[in-house]
Structure formats: structure tokens, C-alpha cells
Amino acid sequence: MSDRVRVSILGATGSVGASALDVASTQCEGAPAFEVVAVTANTRVDELARAAIKARAKVAVIADEAGYGALKSALAGSGIEAAAGGNALIEAAGRDADVVVAGIVGIAGLPTTLAAIRQGANVALANKESMVCAGALLRAEAREAGANLLPIDSEHNAIFQVLDRPERVDKLILTASGGPFRSASMSEMASATPEQACAHPNWSMGAKISVDSATMMNKGLELIEAAYLFDVPESRIEVLIHPQSIIHSLVAYDDGSVLAQLGLPDMRTPISYAMSWPSRMPLPGRERLDLAKIGRLDFSPPDNQRFPALRLARSAVSEGGGAPIVLNGANEVAVAAFLQRRIGFLTISEVAGQVLEVFLNGHSGRPDPSTFEEVYDLDRWARQRTLEQLRLAA
Ligand code: NDP
Q: What region does 51 belong to: left with phi over 0, alpha with psi -120 to 50, or beta?
């Protein structure tokens, strides 16, 4: 890598975005000097302007066009370019950069992830929903553009770090904390509030992924993401509950060796790994893992009865034909409705399962989508069907 590493951070106002900006500001011996090209957000203009000024970005883009005037005034005199709207977002993602951090949440991140890949950058991928919905298409695009897909999700990053002999892999083992409702009863979950669902025991994250962790749909999406990223069938990907979130995932080889990556739950570690790949950069001043202090690590199998999302994800990825897109779209709509207190917590997985079933009944044996347009069409169908199922207006 050259002296200065040019990085764009998509979703800069989010939880991943904040950690990526923090990593980019690291100044110490052995750390690359990062130069921030683009930062983006959806609606939060003030936070975006503050981040852009602090990082001395070249351009700041707000997806919501109504925010353009406010962004331009907030950046006046800073020398930072302001832009707004979907096309500006795609243009920013495709600007010349060495690394693009894809930190937008949901399938809304797919167009920019694609633009970053087409630019041939190292794409530090947090936006798992784009991989879930278009994994095969994105991998083909990356091959063509010579782009590297570098997972930021701590589990996939862990696997990426220890996957030195893909041809000898017996299975991948994704660890899961179990989320805030790991030991909750069905009746406790039935009355769970968004605040309770978002109170993750180990990680501080955005609202959508926090709810996904509580339903365990997050682990289901991660399972699909892992299948596409590492080209391993669902049947060879296991999920293991590990409440302390110290072992971030494991790879079991066919000689009986199992390699794991460990660390304290801090997203800056996987983010820095992806941002400095193929090097590894120091993160000074952070608490280090002390296993003697932790004393013990616990493991158990997941409970598929209380957390049906994992089973749904397995069935979606093994059926293929766009089923993961449908599951993801239904889940995004249901999670948003739960966060707006329009549906209960258990309804999220219930309705995602119903919509997936309707799709699989009508589209069995269908080939995988071969274009991004087909991906967006299926996503639209799933969203509409979920709203109908929930009897909610769009
Ligand atoms: P947040 O909700 O904290 O942040 C999301 C970011 O995306 C914000 O900058 C937001 O802007 C922007 N955004 C939201 N919707 C749109 C849109 N329609 N168009 C453009 N930008 C949009 O999410 P997280 O940082 O928690 O998660 C981001 C992604 O990373 C998710 O896919 C998640 O699954 C994944 N991930 C997150 C981890 C974490 O620790 N948080 C860990 C592993 C993976 P605004 O602020 O204006 O709304």
C-alpha cells in the first residue's frame, strides 16, 4: 500500500461508520496514514457535517435530497464538497479510493456496495444485507473488477483471518452471543419492547442489527453471508452460542484442527483489519484480551424453537432462487414495524416465515436472480407482501 490510504466511509454516521472514522484517525508508528475521500449518511445532516469536518473529507453526501441545503450551509467555508441524493451516493462510492467501508444498513446499501466494487477498491463489507441478497452477483462483479471483498462483520472477519486452506475446510463455525433474550421465555419475548431488544449485552450497534441479534435473524443473515463469501454450503456452517463474544468464529479443518480468532468485542479490530489489509495495523490504547481475567468461556447449541429465524435462513439459502432476498426484505419491513411499535417482537420472525413460505410455494425450483434488477424486483415483492400480511400501509 502507498503511504496514504484513501478511504471512503459509507454510512459514516452509524455505529460501523463511527468506528471506521475512529480507525481512520489512528496516528501511531506502524499505522497507515488515512485520507478520507467520501463520507455519507441518510438523513442526519448535522452528524454527517461534523464527521466530514473532523475527518477532513473531500465530499459529504446525504441520501435525503431535502437535507442538501442544510448540509451545504454546515460545510460552508470548510472546502468540503456537499452533495445529495441516490445518484450522488453512488458517485461517491465509486470515487477513486483504496478502501471503501460499506457501512449502510439494509438492502439500501446494495447500489453503493456495487459501485465500490466496480471501482475495483478493497471493499470493507459491513452491509451484510447486500451480500445476502446478491452474494453471487457481487462476487462475480468483484472478480471482474479485481476488487477484494473484505468482511467487517466480526464473525466473517474472524473466519477470513484464519481461512488459509479453503480446500481443506470441514466446516465453518459462527459464534453467536445469543443476544439480549438468550435466556428469555416466550412470554417475555412476546411483550419485549424495542428498548429491551436493542439492549445487546456485548455490542453497541445500530437499531436494526440489534433487533436482528435479539431474534437471531442476524445469525441467519450471517449464515447466508458466510455461504456466499466463503463458498461453503449451509450444511457445513454451524452456529454455536457463546455468550461472552470472545471467540468471534472458528474454522474446522479436515485434519481435526480448529482455528479461531479471539478478541474483546470491539468492532474497531475487524474494521482496522479490513481497512489495512493485507497488512495489520496497531490500535494503541485499547484494552487487551486477558483470558485469565475472563476465566471461562461458555458454549451451547442454538435453540431453534425460541429463535426460528436461524431455521428460516437455512431454508432460504438452501432453496436459493432468490429466497434469501425475500427473507431479508420481509425481515427489514418487520423490524421497522417493530421499532415503530406497530407489531410485537415475536411477529418479526413469524411474518418473515410466512412470506418466505408463500414465496417458496409459488416459486419452487426457480433459478437464482441473474441481474440486480431481479434482486430489486424480488425485494419489492417481499416488502409489499409483508405489509399486506401485517395489514400495514406502506
Ligand atoms: P446504523 O443504523 O448505526 O448506521 C447506518 C448508517 O447507514 C447511517 O450512517 C445511516 O445514516 C445510513 N443509512 C441508513 N439508511 C440509509 C439509506 N437508505 N441510504 C443511505 N444511507 C443510509 O447501522 P450499523 O452501523 O449498526 O450497521 C451498518 C451495517 O453494518 C448493517 O448492515 C449491519 O448489519 C452491519 N454490521 C454492523 C455491526 C455493528 O457493530 N454495528 C457489526 C457487524 C455488521 P443516518 O445516520 O443519516 O440514518
A: alpha
Q: Report yes or no on 42 lying in a domain.
A: yes
Indicate whether 219 belongs to any domain: no
Please state whether beta strands 148-151 and 4-10 pair in parallel, antiparallel, or not at all (unpaired). unpaired
In a domain? residue 33: yes
Query: For every residue of 39-84, which 3-state class applies, written as one string?
Result: EEECCCHHHHHHHHHHHCCCEEEECCHHHHHHHHHHHCCCCCEEEE
Angle at CA of residue 273, ends 267 and 277, nearest 5°:
155
Separation of CA 257 and ligand 1 centre (Å): 36
Q: How far is the CA of 14 from the centre of ligand 1 (A)?
A: 5
Ligand 1 centroid–CA 363 distance in Å is: 31
Q: Which domain holds residue 53?
A: 4-151
Q: Pick the atom of ligand 1 nearest to 207's CA.
A: 2
Rg, Å, the chain Cα set: 20
| Distance from C-alpha of 135 to C-alpha of 229, rounded to nearest angstrom | 7
Residue 376, domain member (yes or no): no
Question: Which of 87, 110, 157, 205 most suits a substitution to test ligand 1, by most atoms within 8 Å of the C-beta?
Answer: 205
Chain-centre distance for alpha carbon 362:
29
**What CATH number is associated with residue 49?**
3.40.50.720
Average pLDDT by stretches of 10, the chain with 394 residues: 85 98 96 97 98 98 98 98 98 98 98 98 97 98 98 98 96 97 98 96 94 98 98 97 98 98 97 97 96 98 97 97 97 98 98 97 88 98 97 77
Question: In whole angstroms, what is the distance from residue 217 CA to residue 360 CA?
Answer: 19
Q: Which of 9, 19, 42 to mutate to test the pocket of ligand 1 (most atoms within 8 A of CB)?
A: 42
| Number of domains, the chain | 1
Strands, sheet with 169-176, edge to edge from the N-terminal-most edge strand: 237-241, 169-176, 247-253, 258-262
SS3 content of the chain, % helix, strand, coil (to 5): 50, 15, 35
